[in-house]
Design brief:
Layout lengths: L2 E3 L4 E3 L7 E5 L5 E4 L5 E4 L2 E4 L3 E6 L5 E3 L3 E4 L8 E8 L8 E9 L1 E5 L4 E4 L5 E10 L4 E6 L2 E2 L8 E8 L2 E8 L8 E9 L2 E11 L5 H52 L3 H18 L8 E5 L2 E5 L8 H10 L6 E5 L11 E2 L2 E4 L2 E5 L29
Parallel strand pairs: 4-11, 13-20
Antiparallel strand pairs: 1-2, 3-6, 5-9, 7-8, 7-10, 10-11, 12-14, 14-18, 15-16, 15-19, 17-18, 19-20, 21-22, 23-26, 24-25, 25-26
Helix pairs in contact: 2-3
Membrane topology: Single-pass type I membrane protein
Protein name: Ig-like domain-containing protein
Keywords: Disulfide bond, Glycoprotein, Immunoglobulin domain, Membrane, Transmembrane, Transmembrane helix
């Protein structure tokens, strides 16, 4: 309220009502209790408007009470643990807040530290004594070689302490530790319910020399470098091997193609059959020793003088004389002397067919345009078996 006053009179302004959300006041989050007794939990919360209170047990949604205080009677083990107090001003638009309160049974301390701890020679050794203590510890005592350590008179021993609602962590510090400082230390924790103690052994921690550390680092780098080189060489070898395989495959394909282009024994046989068919086409009578022609209206038997000329002789003559036959066969039309046999320069004519003795099959003559060319294996079309 704002008030103003003078000789005439007094004037007052209206009061401002400022709203704010809930907050806890003087909250004790850890309460030591004895079994069989009763305890009253208090949840004080401030706020405008004044927040409402709800008590719950742990995470259970059911409400235990909506009063500011909640009393637990005849406490047993199942009553120990977490209680939750919720203060809310939902109607004013503020979010609710929660407070956790633990009921803890009073008991003598219980040390939970490790029994063997380590420190490096020449460094400050830290020996930890951790204990659960409800109520909290009244005293922590360190004993070395049967004597309590006097921190006030010692320049090498000191301690630091962290207290929690359910216990204490007390750490003994030994400066510039040497061989005599390693061994057994006794830690004793005392509270109103009793005490607990533990023998903690301080062992020396081996520290690798700098030379060993540097050597290990260099060795590790060298190993990594060697592995990298091996990987590179392996990939190169694998790549060249693949190229070699590809080249081998290509050469194999070429060889297959060449092999398919060159006549095989089977193909040669097929080629021979084709030549026999061609010969039979041009020379219908298989046996040329007896060729009958009608000369002057009578039948005469004319002998070629070369024995029996069959398709087999034709082929064998080609094979045995490197492509040159005993004779070449020319099939042509003779319009001058039809049906008459004549002999000119070693040429025997039988009707419209002529056999000429010629050692060189490859020779050609302008006067013989129908001369058959020599067989060429590379260009001859292979016949298949019918």
């Amino acid at each position: 309220m704002c008030e103003g006053e003078n000789a005439i009179g007094v004037s007052r302004a209206t009061t401002l009502d400022i709203e704010y959300g809930p907050k806890f006041v003087n909250l004790n989050s850890h309460i030591p209790v004895d079994l069989g007794t009763s305890v009253t939990l208090t949840c004080e919360a401030d706020g405008n408007p004044l927040p409402s209170i709800i008590w719950r047990r742990g995470s259970y949604p059911d409400a235990l009470s909506t009063e500011r205080q909640y009393t637990v009677h005849n406490i047993q083990d199942h009553d120990l643990g977490l209680y939750k107090c919720t203060a809310s001003s939902i109607n004013a638009g503020f979010a609710p807040i929660d407070a956790e309160i633990y009921l803890m049974r009073k008991d003598q301390p219980k040390i939970t530290s490790s029994k063997i701890q380590y420190a490096a020679k020449g460094s400050t050794a830290d020996i930890e004594c951790k204990a659960r203590s409800v109520p909290n510890a009244d005293e922590v005592i360190w004993i070395r070689n049967g004597k309590e350590i006097d921190f006030a008179s010692s320049d090498r021993y000191s301690f630091s302490e962290t207290r929690k609602p359910d216990g204490v962590i007390n750490t003994l510090h030994v400066q510039d530790s040497d061989d005599d400082d390693f061994g057994v230390y006794n830690c004793t924790v005392v509270n109103s319910m009793g005490l607990d103690f533990m023998a903690i052994t301080l062992n020396q921690k081996e520290i690798l020399a700098l030379s060993y550390i540097v050597g290990g680092v260099i060795g590790g780098v060298a190993v990594i470098f060697i592995i990298a080189i091996a990987c590179v060489l392996y990939h190169r070898y694998k790549g060249s091997d693949n190229e070699s395989y590809a080249e081998t495959d290509s050469n194999t394909e070429i060889k297959k193609r060449e092999k398919s282009d060159s006549p095989t024994e089977f193909q040669k046989g097929t080629l021979m059959d084709q030549w026999r068919q061609d010969l039979n086409f041009h020379c219908p009578p298989t046996d040329f020793d007896e060729v009958y022609g009608k000369m002057n209206g009578t039948e005469s038997k004319v002998t070629s003088g070369y024995g029996t000329l069959r398709s087999e002789n034709y082929i064998n003559g080609y094979d045995n004389h490197n492509g040159h036959l005993f004779s070449d066969y020319i099939h042509r039309s003779d319009e001058t002397i039809p049906g008459e046999s004549q002999m000119d320069n070693g040429v025997h004519q039988y009707g419209t067919s002529t056999f000429r003795s010629r050692p060189d099959f490859n020779k050609s003559s302008d006067s013989d345009p129908y001369q058959l060319p020599p067989a060429d294996i590379s260009t001859t079309k292979l016949a298949t078996n019918v």
